[in-house]
Protein backbone atom coordinates (compact mmCIF):
# COMPACT_ATOMS: atom_id res chain seq x y z
CA UNK A 1 0.00 0.00 0.00
CA UNK A 2 1.01 3.63 -0.36
CA UNK A 3 1.72 5.71 2.72
CA UNK A 4 3.46 8.83 3.96
CA UNK A 5 6.79 7.65 5.35
CA UNK A 6 9.16 9.40 7.72
CA UNK A 7 12.20 10.45 5.70
CA UNK A 8 14.31 13.16 7.27
CA UNK A 9 16.33 13.56 4.08
CA UNK A 10 13.44 15.39 2.36
CA UNK A 11 11.88 18.78 3.22
CA UNK A 12 9.24 18.36 5.89
CA UNK A 13 10.50 14.89 6.81
CA UNK A 14 7.74 12.98 4.97
CA UNK A 15 7.47 11.38 1.53
CA UNK A 16 5.03 9.17 -0.30
CA UNK A 17 6.22 5.57 -0.55
CA UNK A 18 5.06 1.97 -0.21
CA UNK A 19 4.96 -0.39 2.76
CA UNK A 20 3.34 -3.80 3.35
CA UNK A 21 -0.37 -3.81 4.16
CA UNK A 22 -1.06 -3.94 7.91
CA UNK A 23 -2.23 -7.26 9.33
CA UNK A 24 -5.08 -6.65 11.82
CA UNK A 25 -5.21 -8.29 15.23
CA UNK A 26 -8.44 -10.18 16.03
CA UNK A 27 -9.92 -7.11 17.73
CA UNK A 28 -9.02 -4.78 14.85
CA UNK A 29 -10.83 -3.79 11.68
CA UNK A 30 -8.95 -3.07 8.47
CA UNK A 31 -10.04 0.35 7.21
CA UNK A 32 -9.44 1.85 3.77
CA UNK A 33 -8.59 5.44 4.59
CA UNK A 34 -10.25 8.28 2.70
CA UNK A 35 -8.97 11.28 4.67
CA UNK A 36 -6.81 12.21 7.63
CA UNK A 37 -6.63 15.44 9.62
CA UNK A 38 -3.36 16.83 10.90
CA UNK A 39 -2.63 17.80 14.49
CA UNK A 40 0.11 20.15 15.62
CA UNK A 41 1.60 17.64 18.05
CA UNK A 42 2.06 14.85 15.52
CA UNK A 43 3.62 17.02 12.81
CA UNK A 44 5.88 18.96 15.19
CA UNK A 45 7.29 15.93 17.03
CA UNK A 46 6.54 12.86 14.92
CA UNK A 47 8.79 13.22 11.84
CA UNK A 48 11.67 14.45 13.99
CA UNK A 49 11.62 11.61 16.51
CA UNK A 50 10.01 8.59 14.80
CA UNK A 51 12.09 5.86 13.13
CA UNK A 52 12.89 6.29 9.44
CA UNK A 53 10.17 4.70 7.32
CA UNK A 54 7.52 4.85 10.05
CA UNK A 55 3.88 5.53 9.16
CA UNK A 56 2.49 8.16 11.51
CA UNK A 57 -0.91 9.78 11.96
CA UNK A 58 -3.59 9.81 14.66
CA UNK A 59 -6.86 10.68 12.90
CA UNK A 60 -8.44 8.92 9.93
CA UNK A 61 -11.84 8.36 8.36
CA UNK A 62 -12.67 5.73 5.77
CA UNK A 63 -14.57 2.52 5.10
CA UNK A 64 -14.22 -0.91 6.71
CA UNK A 65 -12.49 -3.24 4.27
CA UNK A 66 -12.23 -6.23 6.60
CA UNK A 67 -14.29 -6.64 9.76
CA UNK A 68 -12.61 -7.62 13.05
CA UNK A 69 -12.13 -11.38 13.34
CA UNK A 70 -13.50 -11.46 16.90
CA UNK A 71 -16.87 -10.13 15.74
CA UNK A 72 -16.53 -6.73 17.40
CA UNK A 73 -17.08 -3.54 15.47
CA UNK A 74 -18.96 -2.79 12.24
CA UNK A 75 -19.26 -4.90 9.11
CA UNK A 76 -17.51 -4.49 5.77
CA UNK A 77 -18.52 -1.36 3.87
CA UNK A 78 -19.35 0.72 6.93
CA UNK A 79 -17.99 4.29 6.95
CA UNK A 80 -16.02 4.91 10.13
CA UNK A 81 -13.84 7.40 11.98
CA UNK A 82 -10.75 6.02 13.70
CA UNK A 83 -8.13 6.94 16.28
CA UNK A 84 -4.74 5.39 17.08
CA UNK A 85 -1.24 6.60 17.84
CA UNK A 86 0.06 5.79 14.35
CA UNK A 87 -0.95 4.44 10.94
CA UNK A 88 -3.42 7.10 9.77
CA UNK A 89 -1.26 8.41 6.92
CA UNK A 90 -1.73 5.35 4.72
CA UNK A 91 -4.23 3.77 2.35
CA UNK A 92 -5.03 1.01 4.85
CA UNK A 93 -5.18 1.13 8.64
CA UNK A 94 -5.65 -1.62 11.22
CA UNK A 95 -7.42 -0.12 14.21
CA UNK A 96 -8.91 -1.40 17.47
CA UNK A 97 -12.69 -1.52 17.25
CA UNK A 98 -13.02 0.28 20.59
CA UNK A 99 -11.29 3.27 18.93
CA UNK A 100 -13.56 3.25 15.89
CA UNK A 101 -16.87 5.09 15.54
CA UNK A 102 -19.57 4.45 12.94
CA UNK A 103 -20.29 7.43 10.67
CA UNK A 104 -23.54 8.41 8.90
CA UNK A 105 -23.51 7.00 5.37
CA UNK A 106 -23.85 10.41 3.67
CA UNK A 107 -21.15 12.16 5.71
CA UNK A 108 -18.18 14.05 4.27
CA UNK A 109 -15.35 11.83 5.48
CA UNK A 110 -12.85 14.66 5.13
CA UNK A 111 -14.80 16.69 7.69
CA UNK A 112 -15.29 13.60 9.86
CA UNK A 113 -11.52 12.97 9.94
CA UNK A 114 -11.14 16.07 12.14
CA UNK A 115 -13.07 14.42 14.97
CA UNK A 116 -10.76 12.03 16.88
CA UNK A 117 -8.04 14.10 18.52
CA UNK A 118 -9.59 17.58 18.29
CA UNK A 119 -13.22 16.69 18.99
CA UNK A 120 -12.44 13.75 21.26
CA UNK A 121 -10.01 15.74 23.41
CA UNK A 122 -12.45 18.64 23.73
CA UNK A 123 -15.32 16.36 24.70
CA UNK A 124 -13.29 14.39 27.27
CA UNK A 125 -11.89 17.59 28.76
CA UNK A 126 -15.40 18.97 29.23
CA UNK A 127 -16.46 15.68 30.83
CA UNK A 128 -13.68 16.23 33.37
CA UNK A 129 -15.23 19.56 34.35
CA UNK A 130 -18.52 17.88 35.22
CA UNK A 131 -21.85 19.73 34.79
CA UNK A 132 -21.23 23.07 33.06
CA UNK A 133 -24.81 24.34 32.66
CA UNK A 134 -24.81 27.95 33.83
CA UNK A 135 -21.09 27.90 34.69
CA UNK A 136 -18.19 29.96 33.38
CA UNK A 137 -15.68 28.03 31.26
CA UNK A 138 -12.42 29.40 29.89
CA UNK A 139 -10.86 27.84 26.76
CA UNK A 140 -7.25 28.85 26.14
CA UNK A 141 -5.70 28.46 22.69
CA UNK A 142 -9.24 28.70 21.37
CA UNK A 143 -8.33 29.16 17.70
CA UNK A 144 -6.69 25.71 17.40
CA UNK A 145 -8.45 22.51 16.39
CA UNK A 146 -9.22 21.34 19.93
CA UNK A 147 -10.08 24.86 21.05
CA UNK A 148 -12.67 25.42 18.34
CA UNK A 149 -14.42 22.16 19.19
CA UNK A 150 -14.23 23.00 22.91
CA UNK A 151 -15.86 26.40 22.42
CA UNK A 152 -18.72 24.90 20.45
CA UNK A 153 -19.29 21.99 22.83
CA UNK A 154 -19.08 24.14 25.95
CA UNK A 155 -21.69 26.52 24.53
CA UNK A 156 -23.95 23.56 23.65
CA UNK A 157 -23.51 22.31 27.21
CA UNK A 158 -24.94 25.53 28.61
CA UNK A 159 -21.73 27.21 29.76
CA UNK A 160 -20.82 30.86 29.64
CA UNK A 161 -17.79 30.54 27.36
CA UNK A 162 -14.70 32.72 27.56
CA UNK A 163 -12.30 32.12 24.65
CA UNK A 164 -8.65 33.10 24.95
CA UNK A 165 -6.54 33.86 21.87
CA UNK A 166 -3.38 35.76 21.11
CA UNK A 167 -5.20 38.09 18.72
CA UNK A 168 -8.81 38.88 19.74
CA UNK A 169 -9.13 41.53 17.02
CA UNK A 170 -8.40 39.00 14.28
CA UNK A 171 -10.30 36.02 15.69
CA UNK A 172 -12.94 37.49 18.00
CA UNK A 173 -15.82 37.56 15.51
CA UNK A 174 -15.21 33.97 14.44
CA UNK A 175 -14.96 32.69 18.01
CA UNK A 176 -18.19 34.46 18.98
CA UNK A 177 -19.88 32.87 15.97
CA UNK A 178 -18.79 29.47 17.30
CA UNK A 179 -20.31 30.22 20.69
CA UNK A 180 -17.92 32.30 22.77
CA UNK A 181 -19.57 34.94 24.93
CA UNK A 182 -16.27 36.73 25.54
CA UNK A 183 -12.94 36.75 23.71
CA UNK A 184 -9.85 37.77 25.66
CA UNK A 185 -6.12 38.11 25.00
CA UNK A 186 -4.89 35.46 27.41
CA UNK A 187 -6.11 34.34 30.84
CA UNK A 188 -4.91 37.57 32.44
CA UNK A 189 -7.71 39.32 30.53
CA UNK A 190 -10.47 37.29 32.23
CA UNK A 191 -12.45 39.74 34.35
CA UNK A 192 -14.26 37.30 36.67
CA UNK A 193 -13.23 33.91 38.09
CA UNK A 194 -14.23 30.86 36.06
CA UNK A 195 -15.53 27.47 37.18
CA UNK A 196 -13.53 25.47 34.67
CA UNK A 197 -10.61 25.82 32.27
CA UNK A 198 -9.84 23.80 29.15
CA UNK A 199 -6.12 24.60 28.93
CA UNK A 200 -4.55 24.01 25.51
CA UNK A 201 -1.36 26.06 25.64
CA UNK A 202 0.73 25.11 28.67
CA UNK A 203 3.61 27.03 30.21
CA UNK A 204 2.91 30.45 31.77
CA UNK A 205 -0.63 30.50 30.34
CA UNK A 206 -1.53 27.41 32.36
CA UNK A 207 -0.28 29.14 35.52
CA UNK A 208 -2.27 32.28 34.70
CA UNK A 209 -5.39 30.26 33.88
CA UNK A 210 -5.22 28.36 37.16
CA UNK A 211 -5.11 31.70 38.97
CA UNK A 212 -8.49 32.59 37.39
CA UNK A 213 -10.26 29.55 38.88
CA UNK A 214 -13.03 30.09 41.38
CA UNK A 215 -13.38 27.93 44.49
CA UNK A 216 -14.16 24.35 43.51
CA UNK A 217 -12.96 24.98 39.97
CA UNK A 218 -11.02 22.54 37.78
CA UNK A 219 -8.37 23.12 35.15
CA UNK A 220 -7.98 20.33 32.58
CA UNK A 221 -4.52 20.37 31.03
CA UNK A 222 -4.71 19.17 27.42
CA UNK A 223 -2.16 21.01 25.27
CA UNK A 224 1.49 21.95 25.69
CA UNK A 225 2.27 23.82 22.49
CA UNK A 226 4.65 26.36 24.06
CA UNK A 227 7.11 23.68 25.12
CA UNK A 228 7.67 25.73 28.29
CA UNK A 229 7.58 24.52 31.87
CA UNK A 230 4.93 25.56 34.37
CA UNK A 231 6.35 27.45 37.36
CA UNK A 232 3.84 28.28 40.07
CA UNK A 233 4.83 31.15 42.36
CA UNK A 234 4.72 30.68 46.11
CA UNK A 235 1.12 30.94 47.28
CA UNK A 236 -0.47 29.92 43.99
CA UNK A 237 -1.69 26.65 45.53
CA UNK A 238 -2.99 28.14 48.77
CA UNK A 239 -6.63 27.27 49.46
CA UNK A 240 -7.73 30.42 51.28
CA UNK A 241 -9.24 33.68 49.98
CA UNK A 242 -11.72 32.07 47.58
CA UNK A 243 -9.32 29.39 46.32
CA UNK A 244 -10.73 26.42 48.24
CA UNK A 245 -10.80 23.01 46.50
CA UNK A 246 -9.34 24.01 43.14
CA UNK A 247 -7.71 21.27 41.09
CA UNK A 248 -5.63 20.48 38.01
CA UNK A 249 -6.16 17.26 36.09
CA UNK A 250 -5.13 15.65 32.81
CA UNK A 251 -5.94 12.58 30.73
CA UNK A 252 -4.55 10.46 27.91
CA UNK A 253 -6.98 10.06 25.03
CA UNK A 254 -5.58 6.67 23.99
CA UNK A 255 -6.52 5.22 27.39
CA UNK A 256 -10.03 6.68 27.63
CA UNK A 257 -12.70 3.93 27.79
CA UNK A 258 -15.78 4.27 25.63
CA UNK A 259 -14.00 6.25 22.93
CA UNK A 260 -15.90 4.52 20.10
CA UNK A 261 -19.16 5.96 21.42
CA UNK A 262 -17.66 9.45 21.63
CA UNK A 263 -16.30 9.28 18.09
CA UNK A 264 -19.62 8.12 16.68
CA UNK A 265 -21.55 10.86 18.50
CA UNK A 266 -19.15 13.59 17.42
CA UNK A 267 -19.18 12.33 13.82
CA UNK A 268 -22.96 12.47 13.78
CA UNK A 269 -22.94 16.07 15.05
CA UNK A 270 -20.48 17.08 12.34
CA UNK A 271 -22.48 15.25 9.66
CA UNK A 272 -25.69 17.00 10.78
CA UNK A 273 -24.05 20.42 10.81
CA UNK A 274 -24.42 20.77 14.59
CA UNK A 275 -20.64 21.05 14.98
CA UNK A 276 -18.38 22.93 12.56
CA UNK A 277 -15.01 21.17 12.08
CA UNK A 278 -13.47 24.50 11.04
CA UNK A 279 -11.45 23.15 8.12
CA UNK A 280 -9.10 25.87 6.87
CA UNK A 281 -6.85 23.79 4.60
CA UNK A 282 -7.72 20.78 2.44
CA UNK A 283 -5.80 19.00 -0.30
CA UNK A 284 -4.24 15.79 -1.54
CA UNK A 285 -1.63 13.99 0.51
CA UNK A 286 0.98 14.82 -2.11
CA UNK A 287 0.78 18.35 -0.64
CA UNK A 288 1.66 17.26 2.89
CA UNK A 289 4.76 19.49 3.02
CA UNK A 290 2.62 22.55 2.27
CA UNK A 291 0.06 21.59 4.93
CA UNK A 292 2.56 20.81 7.67
CA UNK A 293 4.55 23.98 7.02
CA UNK A 294 1.41 26.09 7.34
CA UNK A 295 0.45 24.29 10.53
CA UNK A 296 3.88 24.60 12.14
CA UNK A 297 4.16 28.30 11.27
CA UNK A 298 0.81 28.97 13.01
CA UNK A 299 -0.73 30.22 9.77
CA UNK A 300 -3.62 27.77 10.14
CA UNK A 301 -6.27 28.51 12.74
CA UNK A 302 -8.45 25.40 12.48
CA UNK A 303 -8.04 21.97 10.92
CA UNK A 304 -6.00 20.78 7.93
CA UNK A 305 -7.31 17.73 6.03
CA UNK A 306 -5.35 15.48 3.67
CA UNK A 307 -7.27 13.45 1.09
CA UNK A 308 -5.69 9.99 0.83
CA UNK A 309 -5.10 8.40 -2.54
UniProtKB/TrEMBL annotation:
InterPro entries: ADH-like_C (IPR013149), ADH-like_N (IPR013154), ER (IPR020843), GroES-like_sf (IPR011032), NAD(P)-bd_dom_sf (IPR036291), Zn-ADH-like_protein (IPR051397). Gene3D superfamilies: Medium-chain alcohol dehydrogenases, catalytic domain (3.90.180.10), NAD(P)-binding Rossmann-like Domain (3.40.50.720). Residues 9-306 form the Enoyl reductase (ER) domain. It comes from the Bacteria. This is Zinc-binding dehydrogenase.
Amino acid sequence: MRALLVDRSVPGGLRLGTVPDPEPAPNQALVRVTATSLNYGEVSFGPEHAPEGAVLGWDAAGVVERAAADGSGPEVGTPVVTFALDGAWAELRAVDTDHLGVVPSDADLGAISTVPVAGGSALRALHRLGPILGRRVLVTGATGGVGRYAVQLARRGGAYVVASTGDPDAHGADLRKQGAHEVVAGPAGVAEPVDGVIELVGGPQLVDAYDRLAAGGTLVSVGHVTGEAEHFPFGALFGNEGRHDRSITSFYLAECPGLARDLAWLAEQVARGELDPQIVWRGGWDRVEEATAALLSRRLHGKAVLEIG
